[in-house]
Structure formats: C-alpha cells, structure tokens
Design brief:
heterotrimer; A alpha+beta (322); B mainly alpha (218); C mainly alpha (546); B: mainly alpha; Four Helix Bundle (Hemerythrin (Met), subunit A); 6 helices; elongated; C: 546 residues
Chain lengths: 322, 218, 546
Amino acid sequence: MDTTGNIFLPSGQSTIAGEVDALFSFLFWASMILFAIVMGGVGYFIWRYRHRGRETVTSGRAHSTALEFTWTAIPIIMVLIVFFWGFNVYMKMQVVPKDALEIKVTGQKWFWSFDYPHGAATVNELVIPAGKSVKLLMSSKDVIHSFFVPSFRIKMDVVPNRYSVTWFEAMNPGNYDLLCTEFCGKGHSEMIGLVKVVSEREYNEWVETSASLGEGLSLAEYGAQLYKSKACITCHSLDGTALVGPSFKDDFGTMRVLTGGQSVRIDENYIRESILNPQAKVAAGYDPVMPTYQGILKDRQIDALVEYIKSLAKNGAADEAE
Amino acid sequence: MSHADSHAAHPKHLAHHFSDSVQQAESAKLGMWIFLLTEILLFGGLFCAYAVFRAWNHEMFYSAHKFLDVTLGSINTVVLITSSVTMALSIHAMQLGKKKQTLILLAVTLLLAAIFLVVKYFEYSHKFHLGQLPGKYYTFTGVPGDNPHIFFSVYFAMTGLHGLHVLGGMGAIIWMMVRTAKNSFSPEYYTPLELTGLYWHLVDLIWIFLFPLLYLIG
Amino acid sequence: MYDNESERNYLNTPRGWKSWLFTLDHKRIGLMYLIAMAAAFLLGGILATLVRLELLTPGRDIMGAETYNQIFTLHGAVMIFLFIIPSIPAALGNFILPQMLGAKDVAFPRLNLASWYIYVLGSLFAVYSIWTSAIDTGWTFYTPYSTDSTKSVISMTLGVFILGFSSIFTGMNFIVTIHKLRLPGQKWFELPLFVWGLYATAIIQVLATPVLSITLVLLIIEKAGGVGIFDPAMGGDPVLFQHFFWFYSHPAVYIMILPGMGIISEVISVFSRKKIFGYKAIAFSSIAIAFIGFLVWGHHMFVSTQSSLAAVIFSFLTFMNAIPSGVKIFNWMATMYKGHIKLETPMLYAFSFLFLFTIGGLTGIFLGVIATDIHLHDTYFVVAHFHYVMVGGTVMAFLAGIHYWWPKMFGKMYNEFWARIACLIIFIGFNFTFFTQFILGTKGMPRRYYTYLDQYQPLHAFSSVGSWILGLGFIIMAVYLIHSLFKGEKAGRNPWGALTLEWTSPIPPPPENFDKDPVLNHGPYDYDKVVMERDIDKVKMGSVSR
C-alpha cells in the first residue's frame, strides 16, 4: 500500500507522486518556519515595543548592509535549493520512458475519449495496467481542456490542432478521479472521468476482449488501409526508394534536413503538420508539391496514419522530451 | 505669503500648478515621450505577432508579399518622411515667430498625410477587389501555401492601426493650425506644436519599420 | 451636511455640480474615484457572495451552470479591472501624491480628468456587457473558448480596453509629477516610500497596459472578422493568446501590490514612531519587482504546452522576483524593532497585511516550483494564493491607507472601536474563507467548477460561511465610515504626528493644497530627530480612552 502525501495531499498513486510530495512537504515546513519567524517577530515587537508614556525620539539606526545582505542571501540560497530540487523532479516528469504504453486521448466538450493501441476505444473511463508506464498523446476537438489526475500529480493542457504529452506509472489497482482543469464552458465541472487501474493480467485480458470496438482495427492497421486508399502510396514508398516524396521506411524518430538547411525531428507533430500543411517543412532534395489534406482527412484518420508511420520504424522508437 | 499673488506677470499659457514656463514645458515633453513609449508597446504586440507568424509560414509570407506594390509603398515612405521634415520646419518657424510660415508648413504636412492615406486607399481597394481580405473573408487563390490569409490579416492589422494613427495625427495638426491662427503660440510658447511634432515623428518611424517588413521581404 | 465653520476646503470650494463635473482638482478626482472604487467593490462583493452561495453544496443551489460561469467571470473582471487596478493609485494616489511632493496638483490636471471619464466610460461598457448576455469565459478570456462564445465578449473586452487608457494616463501623470513637481531641493532619496511605490507602479502601467490593449484588439477583430490569429483551424495558435495576455496580466499584479507596499512603509513608520529601516533597499526593491515582473509571465502557463526550457527559465525568474518582497518584509520588521508602537486601526491593517501577504507570497513559491505547480495549477490552491496577495495584500493596504488618510480627506475621525472590530472580523472571515481553499486545492478541487465531488463539500461549506463573516466586516466598515462623515469627531491637522508633507496642510485641504508654502524641515521619517505631536492624543475617541 502507498501512503505518500501529507495530510492535505490525496494519497499518491503514481511513481512520481512520492517525489512531488516530498518537495511539497519541504515547501510546507519551510513556509511554516519562515512564517513563524516573521509573525513571531512581528507579534513580539508589537508587544515588547508598545508605546507607553511620553513621546520621545526613537533610534536613528536605519541601515545595516550586513542585515540586508543576510536577508537577501539566505532567501536566495533557499530558492536555489528549491529550484534545483524542483528542476530534477520536473525533468523526471517530462522525460517519457521508451517502452511506455501509448494511449490517445481526445478531449471535447464535455467528455474524454480514449483510443488504445490494440484498437479499442472507451469514453470517460481510462483503463490502464498497474506497474507500467503509460504515455498519453492528447488533443482537443474544440476548446482547450486540461487532463488532471490528482492522485497521480499529473496535469497537462489538451489543445486543439496539436498534440500534448504526459506520462505516468500507476502503482496500485484502483479507481482515481480524472478532472478537466481548463475552463471549457457549461459542462466543465461535469467533465469528470475515471482512471481505472487494473493489474497487468486483468489489463491483458481486457485487451483481448475489447479489440472488437471501433472499426475492429487498431489505429496502425487502419492507417495501413488509408495509406493506400488516400493515395499516399503514389508518392511515398515503404522500402526506402525515394519517389516524389520521401520514403516512410525507418524515418520516424530520426532527424530530417529541410530545404533551407534546418533540421527537424520526425515526430507526431511533424507528421500531422506535413499532412495538413505540407509546404511548412519540405524535406531537402524534394519539391514542394504535396497537396494538403486539410478538410479531407478526419482527426481519427490522421491519428491512424501517424500510428502507421510509427509502426514502420519500431526500432527507432520515439523518445520524447515533452 | 499666499502664492496666488506671487506671480505678478503670470504668462497666459502658464498653468496654475507649475512654478515656471520651463517646468511646464519640460513636464509636457516628458509626458509626451512616455505616451510615445506606450504607442511603441502597442505596435510592439503586432510586430511580435508578425514575427511569430512569419516564422511559422516562411514561404507563404514571401509569396504573399509579392502582391504588395513596392512602388506605392516607396512613394508613401517618401511622402511620410517629407511630412516629418515639414512638421519640424513648422515648429522652427514658430520658434522664429513666423506665424504665416508655420501655418503653411502645417498645411503642407497635412496635405502629405492626406496623400499617404489616399495611396493607402488605392492599395486597399485593389486588395478588396482581388479578394485579398483578412481572415474568413479571404477569397484570393493566387498565393501558394497554407493559410495565405494570415499574411493579409497581419498586413491589414498593422497598416490599419498605423493608418488610424495617421488620421489621429491629422486631427491634431488641424487643431494646431486653428490654434496658430488664433495666435495661441509664440517664440516663448509653442509646446503643443512640439508635442504634435514628436507624435508625428513616431508615426513616421513606425511606417519606416512597417515598410521593409511587409513590402521588402526576401 | 458638512459641519464646518466657514472653512474653505476642496469639498466646498468651488461650489456647484458643474464645478465637480469639470474639476481639475486632483483631490476631487481622487474622491470621485474613491466612490467608484467602493461601488465596484460592492458589485464585485455581491457577485462573490453569490458564487460562494452556489458552492455551499454540490449541484444546483441558487443558479444553473451557465449563470454560475457568468457570475464568477464578472466577479473577476469587475474586481480586477474596475476595482483593484485603479484602487490605490487613482483614489489615494491622486489625492495624496501631489501633497507629499509639496505640489499644487499633478502635472496634467486635464489628463487626470480625462482619465476619470475614460474610467467611467469603460466601466459603463463593462456593466452594459453584464446587462446584455453576460460573458462567461473567466476574466482571462482564453481562446478558443472566447472566440467561439456567443456571449458579450466584445463589449466586455472593449470596456477593459477603454479602462486600460485610464490606467495609462494615470501612470503618465504620476511619472511626470514625480520627476518635475517636487519641491526644489527635495531629492529622490528624500521622498516618502509611497511615492516610490507609485512611481514603480506607474512605470508598469505605462509599459504593460498597451500590450493588453493590443491583445484585446486582436481578440475583438478575431471575433468580429474571423482573422484567425488564435484559431488553430486557420493556422493560428490559441496558446499565443495566453502569452500576449499574461505578458500584461502578470505585471498587472505588481500594479496592484506595489502601491500597497508603499502605504505599508508609511503606516509602519508612523505608527512605530520610528525611522523606516532600509529606505534605499525598500525603494530599489520596488523597482526590481517592477522590472523582473515583466519576465515571469510564463509561470501561468507551465502546463499549457510551452517548452520545458521556457518553463524552467520562467520558474527561476519567478523565484528571483520573490526575493525583493522578502527584503521589504524584513525591513518593515526592523523598523518596528525598538519603536514606540501604537496599534491603532491603520497599524492593525498593516499587521493584517504582514500576516496575510506573507502567506500569499510563500504559497506563490509552491506555484513557482513546476513540479508542484503541475498538481496545483487551476485548482483552488491558486484561487487561495491570489486572494491572499490581492485581498490580504492590496486590499488590507488600501484599507490601512483609507483609515490613515481619512482625517486628511474629510477632516473627521471615524470611531476607533468599531474600526478595530471590523478589522478583526474581516481578518477572521478572510482566513476562514480562503485558508480553507488552500486545502481544497491541494486535495485536487479544480477552480471554476459549478458543481463538485461530494468529498469536497465540508470544506466548501466552511469557506462559504467564512465569506459571510468577511462580508459582515465590510458592512460594519461602511457604516462607521459613512457615519463619520456626518457625525465624526473633527480631526486635528496631524492626528498621527506624521512627518510627511501632506500633514502640514489644513484638514481638509483647500483647493490649492497648502495655506503656507510647504517647506522641507526634515526627512519624511526623521523620528530620531523630531517629536511630532499627535493631535489624536488630544481628542477623545468613542469609548476607547488613551
């Protein structure tokens, strides 16, 4: 059982919660001490130096470089400690483990939908295995939402037309609240979901029984279909041959040089952008002739193509920094 | 010891709370400089938006800007710079007490400002005709790249805000002409003229940045 | 109504409603602002009470979700743009600043009047937008929600746009006044610290507000013209709005607190009868806070998909911005050391400030650390934090200033007994309302929620009861303050025995401020050299005897 958190924090249920809570506790106690010093001092002075009797002049000593230095330097040292400590924990929260289970999250007014790698889809209930890293690839269909699981200490905005990423590893089976924390209108406070953490064995069982949801295909399989039906095959090969456009083989996760000399990493955002706005980043050595699929492909189809292209480069699997 | 009667020869233009003309003039100029600073920050936001969108749409900006008429833009630049010169000269004329010359130079400045706006009118109406309008009203198809309306949105926002400021400046110049004609100014007091001049120079300066950023890309 | 013995002062001279409508007297303008502040605070307070009433229980109590969203949005917009940003500079600053400098008025009296009318116009737009289909986006107007919304976004943002000019003109006026209208021989480091506070504030007003103006203009043309600057479907970026918005709105919070800190410096020195400790440190810390404050806006956006590098830089700078505030608090403590402290109402509010602002500032650190901010962002922890600094900080300082300068403004003393009672009730009510919300937020309760999970109910109920106590304190205050205008004891010229120039003029001051030309005989805090009589010690107040 896990009992991270102090009396105010909910029980921490992710692997990072302990570290976040330790930092929180430090801040809490440091604040308490600082507050006691300040208010204790003020309270004492008010009592000790209360005015009685005749009016007289008071001390003219109104300057002390030593004191100014002290009460500037000590707070600076304290914030530096907290800064580096916080930086450390933050970096752990930002770097997604390589073997994370990736689930696609879509936020919209006013519910959450989840697409799993094996093809299933759920609404408002996120099913994940305990003891495994889970990476969430999120985007919104309308306004900005925010994905918040208090027990895991994670939160990330869910933005239209862009992917945002967060990750966590849940420790124990259980049900944990999922709350939207970016104001999105009338149903904002009812956009509540559940993270259902189950044992790995239960998760695998669930995977097998739930694969018939959606189109009956995993996102990547659907993407393979679209690759042909939407004519990507005419310009992009799968075997490394350069046609009108670059081949899809092995390119996900690598760096690509563009016309003009800059380099860009081929990640989900790059692929999505190239589908919707192909002139934005043209690969060096190729002509800018790709037509845009804005308005032609639905979001889910773009997701599918992204997954498909990723599957073609499993050994060069993406590692994210955000 | 009341201060009410300590200024026997109290100049007409000196306000009650200032101790002398110099303090009043310096205060007015300091105030005007601060106001100009706020204008720079106002346009700064638009320049920032320009930078961001140009970085995200490099080629499109280049293709779209070709539809701006560099000749007309250059004419406008020369017109505005000249108007700054005539504005400065009008202040100089008042420093020498030459009321008629001041009025003439102010009128020329006004005329040049009007020419600027007329040229802009032609530019704008040409764009309207072609459908090169901001945002959802954009219908022109001759610019390659995605979302070409972005360039024109930025163009209209920046030149539009600038044009509004030119218009406001023209109003100020007209008011200065009225006050000059009514003998409000003299070599001892011409602060409002100076302030109008400062404002006008800023309007000119902003255009000098706008012109290359919009018309002379690449 | 006004008990005077034919004394000529700014209230009765000149006479007639037209003389008020077209007044160039900074004191009259300050007074009109003060009345407007009270009205705005009342409106914002009623909205707040409605919010907390609805939150007594989960589910519907007195209104539906859409109405609730409108009410909390308006509470924020009214309190921030109509009340707290103008409050100290426009009401107290206008009244006191010229007198502290020994001047007859601000540098640009007509601009000052324009500032006032622009405030009125902007407020009317804001109220109009409430009257029509009131906006529901939150006071932050985030896109795409605000661009999609069919509610009165345009009229509210237009109102705020107009109000921005009022703020800019006040800032311009104060900067020039401080530079140019000091007494000859009055050096920068001989100015009262309230002046330094107003100066730093004015710099922010002048530099930051235009950025808000252009942001709102872009929002308006996006809504009206479908421009696409923030619309992702048209190649725009909704997060860009957040950057533009917070570039103003973070410095804006320093517009709120810096004048308040200036008042605290005055009050602590006067009521400890002691020279302010660390004058230069306090003065420079105001400038430092103003400057660094422009560089930290991204700390509102740690989870908005900005890059990790940017987030880390903003976090670091946020910590740096906390240091000067700490410096001030320690210097104020050192001022009290070996002083002769009198715990009258202004000092009680200063004490409340120290208590509440310290909590507010320390909780800011929790939010500046990204790792903890991820958990706390957009929860009630943030709501509690900003109420502690804005109400516990700025409003307490504002009230300290009101009570300190009340005799100067009206020539009357308020009832000290009831003033202390009100202060105590406000202090207790405030903590009940908002300390609870730190706990709520830590437990994961998000903000801007109409309904909530059952487990949060006891804390919400407690907070709501606290809001009633808080409201009661303010009602008592309104009563004794208004009462003092009619029936209050006549005040002496320098009730508190202070050493700054505004106390050398008659009470209330005549239109030209001084009856004798002001002379600098001593520094503003020279309690080590001068024993200044306190007129209040010669006047019996209510049931409290000295």
